[in-house]
Write a structure and sequence with these properties.
alpha+beta, Beta-lactamase, five-stranded antiparallel beta sheet, 11 helices, 17 strands, about 40% helix, transmembrane, signal, transmembrane helix
């Protein structure tokens, strides 16, 4: 039991530390990124492939709603009936035109919040989950730190309207988006291009504001997206995409022009797809170190730069290290020790000796019996000759 808990703690420490693994220096001068901050991550491993001012405090605008959505999905129930308050119905900015007293399901509010960026829907969600916006802010900040491991994020509202104390970073937003994308409900809404909206005051079809997801800016493999803008934040953009080799998450923040946010996103997607691949070490894979054998007790994933080779090395404590050709460790995983039972034909030395002794004993007994019969037969023949 102690051994099991030790391995679990080791694995937890690894997961928390691995989320900050990076291939990129703070800024790769070979890429031209116009946004003030940006990050592209391997969505599966969390590895940072490129960052520009990745940990600089920035205003997220409506990218805040990514965090609001996953928090509400995990804490609430999608079929909950939510009564819209006066506070929610009168909020500024982009809306889905909710009426005070209107009753809407939590899932429908999340759809209006992510697809059409409804600030009123976001307030309604926050008040339903935690009773008030201040309580929501207190709880979501604790959730983001504990559940996702953000380091430089502090929110005061659920929609991203400007407040000097409402901030995050490109790296933190990428981590939040990665985490959210592991949830099926979030993925479905985040990737929705259009949706019929039947509200008390507004019957329409909602269309995503993300031009790459909608197809206005064609790019193969886009799986989800969210836009954001307030004067203080500039244009912010969150995008997820996939190829046969890798799934990517891209965040760009504070672009002066909307077109620059999309150009930067395309540049980062091109870079990620052309330079990296996610490698899977299947569950059950066996490794040997000396006389001990170790096993991967779950699927393990690491990010490989396509321009370099890697090899696997196992430490004495069962730690699997992925090492590139320069000797740098690019990832590591704790393995479980596998107890190997000797096969019948490969018994330990003592067992072989016991088998040999038994075999010799049987041979001696057989010879003794043969001698007994031969002796008896000889005596009988001798007696017959004497009688004659």
């Amino acid at each position: 039991m102690i051994r099991r808990w030790t391995m679990m703690i080791f694995a937890l420490i690894f997961v928390l530390s691995n989320s900050y693994h990076t291939f990129a220096k703070d800024k790769d001068e070979s890429l031209t990124i116009r946004s003030q901050a940006a990050a592209v991550l391997d969505s599966t491993t969390g590895t940072v492939l490129y960052q520009k001012n990745g940990n600089k405090k920035m205003y997220p605008a409506s990218l805040t709603k990514i965090a609001t959505a996953i928090y509400a999905i995990e804490k609430g129930k999608l079929d909950d009936k939510v009564t819209v308050s006066k506070n929610a119905a009168s909020v500024d900015g982009t809306r889905v035109y909710l009426d005070e007293g209107e009753v809407v399901t939590l899932k429908h509010l999340l759809q209006g919040m992510l697809i059409n960026s409804g600030n009123d829907a976001a307030i309604a969600v926050a008040e339903h989950i935690d009773g008030s916006v201040p309580k929501f802010a207190e709880h979501i900040n604790a959730y983001l730190k504990k559940q996702i491991g953000v380091k430089h994020t502090h929110f005061v509202n659920p929609n991203g309207l400007y407040d000097p104390e409402h901030y995050t970073t490109a790296n933190d937003l990428a981590k939040i988006t990665n985490y959210a994308m592991k949830n099926e409900t979030f993925r479905q809404i985040f990737g929705t291009k259009q949706l019929k909206w039947n509200g008390e005051s507004w019957n329409t079809t909602l269309y995503t504001h993300h031009r790459m997801l909608k197809g206005e800016i064609p790019y193969k493999g886009i799986t989800g997206g969210k836009t954001g803008f307030v004067n203080e934040s500039g244009h912010t953009l969150a995008t997820t995409a996939q190829s046969s080799n890798i799934h990517l998450t891209v965040i760009t923040m504070d672009a002066i022009y909307k077109k620059n946010a999309y150009k930067d996103t395309k540049t980062l997607l091109d870079y990620g797809f052309s330079h990296f691949k996610t490698i899977k070490v299947p569950k059950g894979s066996m490794f040997t170190k000396g006389k001990k054998k170790y096993e991967a007790n779950k699927d393990l994933f690491f990010t490989k730069n396509l321009s370099t080779s890697v090899k696997e090395e196992v430490e004495k404590n069962g730690l699997l290290k992925i090492v590139d050709k320069t000797g740098d460790v690019i990832d590591e995983f704790p393995l479980s020790e596998k107890k190997v039972h000797a096969a019948q034909g490969d018994l330990p030395h003592k067992g072989k000796k016991e088998d040999s002794d038994l075999h010799s004993s049987i041979m001696v007994s057989a010879v003794s019996i043969m001698l007994f019969f031969m002796t008896t037969l000889f005596i009988r023949k001798l007696i017959r000759k004497i009688k004659r």
